Amino acid sequence: MGYVPVKGGTQAIDASIKRVKFERLKGQAILEIETILSTMRALVDQVMSESSLYSPQLAALAIKQAEGSMEEAVFLMRAHRSTLPRLYYSESVETDAMFVERRISASFKDIPGGQLLGATYDYTHRLLDFNLINEKKADNTQWLQSYAEELQEVKVEETVERYPKVVEYLRKEGLFEQYEMDNTEPEDITKQNLEFPASRSARLQVLTRGQTGALTSLAYASLRGYGEVHPTVGEVRVGSLPIYVKHPNEEDGSEDEEFYIGDIQVTEVESFVPVHVKNENNEEELEFEIGYGICYGQNETKTIAMSILDQCLEHLNDEFPTHDEEFVLLHIDSVESSGFISHLKLPHYVTFQSKLDSIRQVKKGVQVNES
Amino acid sequence: MKANTHFAFFDEGSKKEIRRATLKAVAIPGYQVPFASREMPIARGWGTGGLQLTLSLIGQTDVLKVIDQGSDESVNAVSIKKLVQDTTGVQLTECTEEADIIQSRHRIPECSLTKEQILVLQVPIPEPLRAIEEREYMTKRMHAEDDYSGAWLMLFEQIMKFGKTATTADHPVSVHDRYVMAPSPIPRFDNPKMDHSEALILLGAGREKKIYAVPPYTSVKSLAFEDYPFTVESFEGAHCHLCGAVDVFLDELIDHEKGATIYQCNDSAYCIEQLNKQEKVEVESTYA
Amino acid sequence: MHETPILRVENLCKQYGTGCQECQDKERNSVEKNYCKSCGTVFAVRDISLDLYRGEILGIVGESGSGKSTMMQCLYFDTDITSGAAYINRPGKENENVFELSSQQKRMIRNHDYGMVYQNPVHGLKMNFSSIGNIAEKLIAAGNRNVSDMEATGKRLLTNVHIPLHRMKEEPEKFSGGMQQRVQIAKALSNNPPILFLDEVTTGLDLSVQANVLDLIKKIQRELQISMIVVSHDLAVIRMLADRTIVMLNGEIIEEGLTDQVLEDPQHAYTQQLVYSLL
Description:
Keywords (chain B): Lyase
Structural class of chain B: alpha/beta
Structural class of chain A: alpha+beta
Protein name (chain B): Carbon-phosphorus lyase complex subunit PhnJ
Largest sheet of chain B: 7 strands, mixed
Oligomer: heterotrimer
CATH topology of the largest domain in chain B: Rossmann fold
Shape of chain B: globular
Shape of chain A: globular
Helix content of chain A: 40-55%
Number of domains of chain B: 2
Largest interface: A-B, 60 and 72 residues
Order of helices and strands of chain B: HEHEHEEEHHEEHEEEEEH
CATH architecture of the largest domain in chain B: 3-Layer(aba) Sandwich
Strand order of the largest sheet of chain A: 1-2-3-4
Number of helices of chain A: 13
Strand content of chain A: 5-15%
CATH class of the largest domain in chain B: Alpha Beta
GO molecular function (chain B): lyase activity
Largest sheet of chain A: 4 strands, antiparallel
Low-confidence stretches of chain B: none
Radius of gyration of chain B: 20 Å
Radius of gyration of chain A: 26 Å
Strand content of chain B: 15-25%
Pfam family, one (chain B): PhnJ
Number of helices of chain B: 7
InterPro entries (chain B): PhnJ
Number of strands of chain A: 4
Mean pLDDT of chain B: 93
């Protein structure tokens, strides 16, 4: 009989849990958290982004515990997140205060401040590097040393300069609408159930914690034709942002009373999408709108995808699933989708018995009619 | 970095929030109350809705029973029990009468529950109209407008096509003559147990983020036309090969030696209880 | 006539767009046809009032874009109105402006007092449900819970509209356009609604099929004494069906009267043009 005998489930589970531990330990190698943190940056970033919990340390632990399984690692982080009370909301962050590590624009060759490639795989050739099989610590140390020497020769600016946003220049030209500052308190989707039509703040929260693959696929579908958004990437920037919280007991809200609680690294994307609008004289005009994406860590594909989907959902359209907010927002969460798919492994004996009965009764009924 | 877990996993703020949604659900029988469903240490779709209800309700002196498709020892039931016990230390039981809270997936126990007990059902898809309308925005309006013709039309079409309603588990019910509700995928056999149940029945859908309830002594009617009455699964002529019970929901098994179909109580705790009773009678009669 | 109308519509307006100072000021004349050149607002239905009496067929004729279908959609609550009122002669509720009711109450009116036949059957039928199920849907919505009863009603109606009963369990998507239209009529009639709306029901059908459907409507009116509003751009259809006729242009009523009168002696230039093109 299957795996639900009248007795014995407890022992079977214990044995299974032992077995999965054995699988992780049997190779006799110990993966240090430090090793994950210093060599698996992309994985750590992706886990933090999908679990919407910014902690490289915990993400590395989750990756270790989950034997590198993305869905398991995200799941662990989310479950841990549920045990943490929400004590503060941070003050809103101005991303032009970002300490930029990388910043490119696909819209303009010559953006004020210039293009800054930073660290990216974009221009590497994807050839397996067999030298890494026998990587030597001494070689690496030597490489690092010579790299440090190279950097010595680079001229350093006297002051730290802020990179202005590309969009600000276009806004000055009148190509983007000027919006009033909207300081409505954003919704918190971890405290309130998502309702439709969803507010933009709720939408962006769902998108930023969405599964990387799911976002990428849907945004790709929209680009290919199952959607109406064909953006140009105005700006991709990766860098760190300082986070502040207010003093919990002092209400006066002066900026001096804010406490710096640390930096987070994020990827931010602004996509420019041409749209038709009517002006005051009822004439058609072309204007740009912005699709916005922001994610924890360096997750560029996901963030661009997010900016596309944000713009898709700004223009709801029954013809395309990518422009349907329930379709997009309810199906991209890693924990939800992987959980429901995997629940099919649970026994369904009773429900199946009920189906059997129904089919048999219908068959019986048909036979009676025929005879 | 290591954090101590709270009693019953959640912080108190989260529990209160869930209990508030639960109270609202009790106040509006059959209405799906949205709540900020938390990610749990077990997977979405594996009973997180029921688990959140249980954890928000349970106190140190409560006795808990968890069943999955009728079985206390089903792997997922064991896993849920383990989690609750690890975070609360409460007493567990397999005996239905002893339990204060019974969390169940897809079954209502055979022996009738009392007003001292709470039945928590795990729900995969809480929306009874989802098969008719995929959009939440629309189904919410249909409930608000008491527009259930779609649900009835499905039944009508089945009768036209098959000569009878062909619903399986999760046959929709009307609660307190107002809201049409998905009873969770319990077999039709269990639907009548909800009607005027003495025990409070709470239903939790974690992934879909809804809580709803059937308060004690509330009318629960399975949708059925006047001339095509609601019917439950038939086990005519069958009995449990272990305890001999009839009038219970039976699992169909294959006797590997004889190749014949045999039946066994789906509610394993009920079966064992029947067997114990029989043994007691036997022992007593032997000594008498 | 001293009889109380079964449906009374007063000053019904429907506009798309917010309007501007230019078009609100009648003297400035910024509205051309029904379109404000200044702000782009479309005035689809402008200040329409009409009465519908028991058992009569009221025809509404006009070119496409004249606002006649929009007006019908407003009456059937398919689209929200901008302003105006409608009163249905129901016991105790004669003075209730039905546009001000809750969506639940509007649904009740659709299920009990109204029947609607759309130009395109896709809007009136569930194409992938059985034909008998489509009729039952309306009966279910009105509270019927008896299958045999609904099946009997459905069979009677399908017979009335000449759908062979051996096809009643088939889905309308498998039917021809004329058959679909007849199923839609059967569905609209299922609750014996006192008021029936017919929106360009013969447009797009073959001539022989058209005649068939028109005969059917005439027969229904004779036998069931249902009040109907028939919208059509085709004066021939109106001539055949309607007792009284309203002519609409650019969202406004430009002429109304007994159908014969309107056809014999059209007053407005546009009506004259319409009538002469028919001859």
